Amino acid sequence: MDLKTALYALADLLMIVAGFTTGWKFIRNYRNYLLGLEWIIVATSGTNFLIYGLVGANETSPMYHLAFFFDAFSRSVGITVILVLGLMQVTHGFKPSLAVDIGVFGLAIVGGLVMSIYAGELGLAGAIFYVVMNALTTLFLLYFAWRLWNIGARGNAIAVAAVSAAAAAIAGIYDFYRIPGDDEHHTIFYILALTTWACQMVVYYFGYRALQTSNDRIATDRAPGSSVASSAAVFD
Question: Cα separation of 58 and 1, whole Å?
Answer without folding.
Answer: 18
